[in-house]
Structures are given as C-alpha cells and as structure tokens.
C-alpha cells in the first residue's frame, strides 16, 4: 500500500501531464527506435573504422623495390604528388577491364573528394587556422593510390616476365 502511494506521488509530481497508465505503448516504441538508431550508428562507425584501418595498412606497405632493374621505368610513374595525377596514371595504365578493376580506388576517390570539400569549407569558415587534418587525409589518399599503382605495376611486370619465359 505504501509503495502504491509512493508511485502515485512520484508520477503526479514528475509527470503531471501523463495519463495514469503505467506502460505507455509509445514510450516502448521510442526506446526501441532509440536502440535501433544507436545500433545503426555503431555499425556505420565500425564499418568506417575498418575501412580506414585497411587503408592505413595498405599505405604502410612499401613501394616497389627500387633496386629492381625491371621496375625502373615504372618509378617515374610513381613520382606524382597529386592524387588526381596518380588516379589518371592508374586509369591509363590499368584500364577498367571489369567491375573490380577500379573499385579499389572508387572509395578512396570519394573520400578524397569529401576531404577536399571539407578543406574548402573549413578554409572559408575559418581562414586563419587552415585545414591541417583534411590535408593529411588527402595526402593519405594520394599515398594509398600510389601504393596500389605500385602493386599493380609490380604484378604486371611479374606477369610479363612469366609470359616471356614461355617464348
């Protein structure tokens, strides 16, 4: 009996606008929707962090062996400092032969475009500070494209050498 009076006192004191129904259906739906939104946000965050970790793992791999004489003509292609230049070389050297040919660089291209947009937005809003973080991320995208181009050129040279061994 005392617990019932205390529950009614708390309900009237804190929630005078609510009806006397103890279990509201809409409040349960609100909690379920909140859990769904938080779970979806956590999954998206996990996917983004996993993608970025794979990007960093690829960037940390070394470029082609510069001491290898067979890859010396390819080293000039890897000296580009702009993402757009590296992307153009990648598309010229490695044409789109299927659906997975350039899909490795599609995500990075979108990320680079997003970082460039954020850099422009940041410099227009706060011109004094600049956008150091976005510049570092754009450089990371350029390094990724360079490493992927290097791996692709190394694979091409290996395949050409194998094909020559049959002649």
Describe this structure in words.
With 167 residues, the chain is mainly α. The protein folds into two domains: 38 residues; 104 residues, no CATH class. The protein has six helices and no strands. Helix 2 packs across helix 6, helix 4 runs parallel beside helix 6 and helix 5 packs antiparallel against helix 6. The longest helix has 36 residues. It starts with a helix and ends with a helix. 13% of the residues are buried.
Keywords:
167 residues, 0% strand
Protein topology:
Layout: H1 2-14, H2 25-60, H3 72-75, H4 83-93, H5 103-125, H6 132-165
Helix pairs in contact: 2-6, 4-6, 5-6
Oligomer: single chain
The amount of helix comes to over 70%
Work out the strand percent. Answer: under 5%
The assigned structural class equals mainly alpha
Distance between the termini: 97 Å
Which stretches are poorly predicted, pLDDT < 50 over at least 5 residues? Answer: none
Write the element-wise H/E pattern from the N-terminal end onward: HHHHHH
Count of DSSP strands: 0
Query: Quick one: biggest sheet?
Result: none
The overall pLDDT, averaged over residues, is 75
**Total domain units:** 2
């Amino acid at each position: 009996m005392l617990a019932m009076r205390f529950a009614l006192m708390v309900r009237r004191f804190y929630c005078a606008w609510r009806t006397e129904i103890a279990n509201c259906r809409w409040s349960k739906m609100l909690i379920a929707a909140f859990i769904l939104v938080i779970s979806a946000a956590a999954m998206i965050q996990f996917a983004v962090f996993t993608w970025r970790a794979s990007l960093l793992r690829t960037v940390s791999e070394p470029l082609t062996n510069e001491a290898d004489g067979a890859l010396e003509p390819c080293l000039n292609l890897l000296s580009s400092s702009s993402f757009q230049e590296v992307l153009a070389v990648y598309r010229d050297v490695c044409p789109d032969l299927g659906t997975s040919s350039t899909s490795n660089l599609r995500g990075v291209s979108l990320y680079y475009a997003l970082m460039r947009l954020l850099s422009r937005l940041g410099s227009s809003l706060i011109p004094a500070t600049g956008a150091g973080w976005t510049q570092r991320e754009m450089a990371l995208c350029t390094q990724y494209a360079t490493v992927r181009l290097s791996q692709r050129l190394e694979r091409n040279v290996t395949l050409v050498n194998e094909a020559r061994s049959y002649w």
